[in-house]
């Protein structure tokens, strides 16, 4: 099995912070959180306060580096991309100068055709994975973690990561056909993220029956576009309400609260673009995109 000695996590938000903490606790490889945000600086100075929902709170010292401090990784290292998609071109520019094709790079961002997008920006092959856990940072240096899964497209480095993470507080899974996983996660995000942002609510509130017609309208379009793309999604409002529980706050709401550019173009916007390409109308998702963009523009202008 491939050996991994050090893992660089590029993107020091809630998800990246949780992964760095999980890798550190698993042992077997050094985790380095690469960033420069206020959240990252607080972790560097005081450590990460990790609140594992239902399992207590602890402070962890994490290795941190800025992009400038990060050395050129070698083939025994791995790079996990967890940063926001709007910042991906800028990240790819400096990361390309440091990492050759022999260094495994795994894109963990939500969205469609992310592997192809990152590969084009980096000018090299990349690997794919997706996180299925709740991670929310209500204040700098603190993250609440709701245990879940990480799915990785099968490869030698994915197998090594699964072996490592099997010792952590997460369930890692290898997947041979990743397209259904990507579509499923996209559908969940198309409901959770914009409704949380537009209505200023958490996952538990999104489950309320009064929002079922809105959830159904969004999901119906996603399912139709997925089917036109050759993927059958077994997902409806009843399934969503049963599976998506808890007080986790989807990241789009956090982005709006902090006047940051959101990932709406890569979530509901991806469904709209794919629908246009395949001749499937998506008026509900187009409406969602326009509403979120209004709030986003308003926040950025302020």
SSE blueprint:
Layout: E1 6-10, H1 14-26, E2 30-34, H2 38-46, E3 48-52, E4 56-60, E5 63-65, E6 77-81, H3 88-96, E7 105-107, H4 114-122, E8 127-139, E9 142-153, H5 156-165, E10 171-175, H6 179-199, H7 203-206, H8 212-228, H9 237-243, H10 251-257, H11 268-278, H12 283-301
Parallel strand pairs: 1-2, 1-6, 2-5, 3-9, 6-7, 7-8, 9-10
Antiparallel strand pairs: 3-4, 8-9
Helix pairs in contact: 6-8, 6-10, 6-12, 8-11, 11-12
Features:
alpha/beta, about 300 residues, 10 strands
Element string (H = helix, E = strand): EHEHEEEEHEHEEHEHHHHHHH
- Mean pLDDT across every amino acid position: 93
User: Distance N terminus to C terminus?
Assistant: 51 Å
Number of helices: 12
What helical percentage do the residues reach?
40-55%
**Computed Rg:** 19 Å
Our estimate of the beta-strand percent is 15-25%
**Count the strands?**
10
Indicate the structural class. Answer: alpha/beta
Provide structural commentary.
- The chain is an alpha/beta fold and 302 residues long.
- It contains twelve helices and ten strands.
- Strands 1, 2, 3, 4, 5, 6, 7, 8, 9 and 10 form a ten-stranded mixed beta sheet that branches.
- Helix 11 crosses helix 12.
- The model has no long low-confidence stretch (mean pLDDT 93).
Short description:
The protein is an alpha/beta fold and about 300 residues long. The chain has helices spanning about 15-25, 40-45, 90-95, 115-120, 155-165, 180-200, 205, 210-230, 235-245, 250-255, 270-280, 285-300; strands at about 5-10, 30-35, 50, 55-60, 65, 75-80, 105, 125-140, 140-155, 170-175. Strands 1, 2, 3, 4, 5, 6, 7, 8, 9 and 10 form a ten-stranded mixed beta sheet that branches.
């Amino acid at each position: 099995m491939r050996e991994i000695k050090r893992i660089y996590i590029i993107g020091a938000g809630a998800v990246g912070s949780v992964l760095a903490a999980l890798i550190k606790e698993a042992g077997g490889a050094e985790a380095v959180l690469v960033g420069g945000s206020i959240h990252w600086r607080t972790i560097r100075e005081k450590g990460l306060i990790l609140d594992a929902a239902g399992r207590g709170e602890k402070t962890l010292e994490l290795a941190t580096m800025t992009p400038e401090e990060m050395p050129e990784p070698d083939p025994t290292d791995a790079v996990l991309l967890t940063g926001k998609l709007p910042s991906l071109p800028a990240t790819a520019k400096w990361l390309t100068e440091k990492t050759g094709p022999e260094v495994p790079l795994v894109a963990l961002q939500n969205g469609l055709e992310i592997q192809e997008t990152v590969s084009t920006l980096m000018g090299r092959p990349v690997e794919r994975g997706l996180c299925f856990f709740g991670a929310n940072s209500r204040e700098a240096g603190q993250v609440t973690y709701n245990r879940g899964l990480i799915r990785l497209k099968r490869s030698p480095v994915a197998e090594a990561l699964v072996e490592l993470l099997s010792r952590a507080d997460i369930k890692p899974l290898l997947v041979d056909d990743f397209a259904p996983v990507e579509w499923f996660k996209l559908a969940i995000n198309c409901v959770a993220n914009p409704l949380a942002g537009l209505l200023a609510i958490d996952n538990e509130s999104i489950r309320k029956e009064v929002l079922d017609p809105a959830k159904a309208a969004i999901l119906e379009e996603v399912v139709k576009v997925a089917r036109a793309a050759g993927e059958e999604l077994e997902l409806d409002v009843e399934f969503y309400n049963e599976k998506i529980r808890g007080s986790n706050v989807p990241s789009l709401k956090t982005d709006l609260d902090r006047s940051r550019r959101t990932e709406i173009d890569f979530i509901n916007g991806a469904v709209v673009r794919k629908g246009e390409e395949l001749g499937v109308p998506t008026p509900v998702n187009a409406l969602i995109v326009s509403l979120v963009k209004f709030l986003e523009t308003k926040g950025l202008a302020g």
